[in-house]
């Protein structure tokens, strides 16, 4: 028994020595976690060869695909880094497993040049040198429509995606934050937008999908202009307005008032009815009520033959399918086009009998095709101007003209009725800002 015990002790001593030698040998070849080496042989156990043949291929305005060649048999994955042209700082984009040699970089910005590099790594902290850099520019998008608020813009692109840029202090870009944007930035990745409108500090969009034609709002909601049924919260991203799915078009109005941002909206349904919601201080909603705020879309009258519309600051304009033009709201600066006073004196909060609480026809002509409206609260007055195009291509304006916004070669007279601008008859499109007008032939 004693001999056997001694043999066991000898065996244990020999085994311990072997284990110690093995650990020591491995320790001689251990590496610090932050050491970077460049290998030259695929068979070197501790060196990692850099990836090569990195290619960056654009596939859309928002996506670039990456491909590379693996040159090592002992790596545990790849690190992908990216920067934009003109920016020196690299950012870590993704970490890939060792058997993956491609990557799809999504949610990019259109028409931007992106630069990439890749390197391999192992589990103990070794990293290869970087691959050669590869750069690619995302596809450029063209705008189908552009809408502008007081200090922000939104655009609907050729792929029916919405982008935004400019001031964003009330979430009016719909990006989920209040950071201003200097370049076009996708609002959401949905590509089923059909109409857009913006004014003041809010935006409205219309989607067309298998779910129907729905309207969505985002931005400032101080006076219920987003149509959510409340005013306590702004819309940080696009949210659906109500449950109706039969909208045809939407039109925003608004700007700055003494108490802060305000706005109202008009919308036409596929059945030809016209609806309004938001700020109603000067009965610009056309609902024949004195409520200052209406928080959900409400139908105006019973007519079902409305074709198009425009929302100003304190007034509204609309055209029917028979090409007659109608107006309602404030007429402080003749922006309703009713000559002296509106046909119906209204229960206005701000200006008494010169306000028009329901839609009323401007003149008796039936050759109007397109209208635009704008305005501002200046010197205790709800100033505004209106511009319209007739079916014969002539351009007309009326209302406030202090800054020459009527295009009538002067700034000294307000026009109470539609007045033709020049003699051209090839006008095709119009838009109005607070103190200016734009038109396309």
Describe the structure.
- The chain has 441 residues and is mostly beta strands.
- The protein folds into two domains: 52-137, Immunoglobulin-like, CATH 2.60.40; 143-440, Methylamine Dehydrogenase, Chain H, CATH 2.130.10.
- Helix content is 6%, strand content 44%.
- It has one helix at residues 2-28, and strands at 52-60, 63-69, 77-84, 91-96, 102-105, 113-121, 134-137, 143-148, 152-157, 162-166, 181-186, 193-199, 202-209, 212-219, 235-240, 247-257, 260-269, 274-279, 293-299, 306-311, 315-320, 325-329, 356-361, 368-378, 381-390, 395-399, 415-420, 429-432, 437-440.
- Strands 4-3-6-7 form a four-stranded antiparallel beta sheet, with no helix packed on it.
- The model is unreliable at 18-45 and 345-353 (pLDDT under 50).
Major beta sheet, strand line-up: 4-3-6-7
* Estimated helix fraction: under 10%
Order of helices and strands: HEEEEEEEEEEEEEEEEEEEEEEEEEEEEE
Give the end-to-end Cα distance, rounded to a whole number of Å: 113 Å
Radius of gyration: 33 Å
Quick tags:
441 residues, mainly beta, Immunoglobulin-like, Methylamine Dehydrogenase, Chain H, four-stranded antiparallel β-sheet
């Amino acid at each position: 028994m004693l001999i056997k015990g001694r043999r066991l002790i000898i065996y244990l001593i020999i085994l311990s020595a072997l284990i110690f030698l093995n650990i020591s040998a491995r320790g001689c070849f251990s590496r610090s976690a932050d050491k970077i080496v460049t290998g030259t042989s695929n068979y070197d156990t501790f060196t990692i060869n850099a990836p090569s043949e990195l290619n960056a291929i654009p596939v859309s305005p928002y996506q670039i695909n990456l491909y590379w060649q693996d040159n090592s048999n002992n790596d545990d994955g790849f690190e992908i880094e990216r920067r934009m042209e003109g920016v020196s700082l690299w950012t870590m984009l993704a970490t890939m497993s060792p058997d993956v040699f491609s990557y799809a970089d999504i949610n990019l910005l259109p028409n931007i040049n992106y630069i990439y590099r890749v390197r391999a790594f192992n589990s103990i902290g070794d990293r290869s040198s970087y691959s050669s850099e590869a750069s690619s520019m995302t596809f450029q998008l063209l705008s189908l429509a552009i809408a502008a608020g007081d200090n922000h813009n939104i655009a609907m692109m050729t792929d029916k995606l919405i982008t935004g840029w400019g001031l964003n202090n009330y979430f009016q870009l719909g990006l989920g934050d209040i950071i201003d944007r200097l370049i076009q930035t996708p609002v959401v990745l949905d590509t089923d937008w059909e109409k857009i409108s913006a004014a003041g500090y809010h935006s409205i969009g219309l989607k067309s999908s298998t779910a129907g034609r729905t309207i969505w709002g985002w931005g400032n909601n101080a006076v219920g202009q987003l149509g959510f049924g409340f005013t306590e919260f702004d819309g940080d991203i696009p949210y659906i307005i109500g449950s109706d799915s039969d909208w045809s078009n939407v039109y925003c109005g608004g700007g700055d008032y003494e108490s802060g941002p305000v706005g109202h909206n008009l919308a036409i349904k596929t059945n030809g009815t016209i609806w309004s919601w938001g700020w109603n201080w000067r009965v610009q909603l056309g609902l024949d009520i004195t409520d200052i705020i209406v928080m959900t879309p409400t139908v105006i009258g019973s007519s079902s033959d409305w074709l198009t519309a425009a929302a100003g600051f304190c007034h509204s304009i609309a055209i029917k399918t028979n090409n007659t033009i109608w107006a309602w709201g404030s007429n402080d600066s003749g922006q309703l086009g009713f000559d002296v006073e509106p046909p119906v004196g209204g229960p206005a909060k701000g200006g008494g009998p010169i306000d028009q609480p329901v839609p009323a026809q401007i003149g008796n002509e039936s050759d109007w095709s397109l209208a635009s409206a704008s305005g501002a609260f200046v010197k205790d007055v709800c100033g505004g101007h209106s511009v319209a195009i007739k079916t014969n291509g002539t351009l007309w304006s009326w209302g406030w003209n202090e800054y020459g916004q009527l295009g009538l070669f002067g700034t000294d007279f307000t026009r109470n009725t539609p007045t033709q601008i020049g003699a051209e008859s090839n006008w095709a499109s119009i838009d109005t800002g607070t103190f200016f007008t734009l038109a396309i032939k």
